[in-house]
Amino acid sequence: MIKTILTHIDFLNEQVEVLDQEVAARIASFQEDVERLDSIPGIATRMAEQILAEIGTDINKQFPSAAHLCSWAGLVPGHNESAGKKKSAKTTNGNKYLKSALIEAAHSVAASKNFLGAMYRRTAARKGKKRAAVNVAHAMLRIAFYLLTRKEMYVDLGEDYFDKQKQQSIVKYAVRRLENLGYTVTIAANT
Questions:
Q1: Which of these, 17, 18, 51, 54, lies nearest to 37 by C-alpha position?
Q2: Would you say 98 and 137 are in contact if contact means Cβ atoms under 8 Å apart?
Q3: How far apart are CA 11 and CA 122, in angstroms?
Q4: Which of 136, 167, 178, 188 has the fewest CB atoms within 10 Å, i.e. the most exposed one?
């Protein structure tokens, strides 16, 4: 019985190898796009190949904007509000394969020290891990759209991006409040 199971496992490994070679042959002409997508944290080569397989290679013809792509993938929240009452904001239906793959990738960046990891932790603290994963998956797909249309590599904004944004807004708010109270304010950074 064990010999039969091991023979079957060997057969399956051979089939996986054959399919890997087939995928590599078909994706060879789009290797630059795979490398661009691979530069996004949480997206490895296999995931990049899956994204290209789902959205196609001529992204400009199929999707006029990143918002259209995210809507097609089902990574946008529903908006169901009537008479001031907010109802279910469940994500829309879309490409279930791309959606589940991106959500899995979003969970993988949760503890990483980069922009997407910080976005995940920030959203998870307020709305929970599942909504954070959808939020980061949405951001990953938008990033993928812009990388493919602009032919650029991913540049990380850094883990402290949100802290810097918050710091600037706090300083602006404090300066405006002091000026409204009649003070003249000059700002000097401590070094």
A1: 51
A2: no
A3: 45
A4: 188
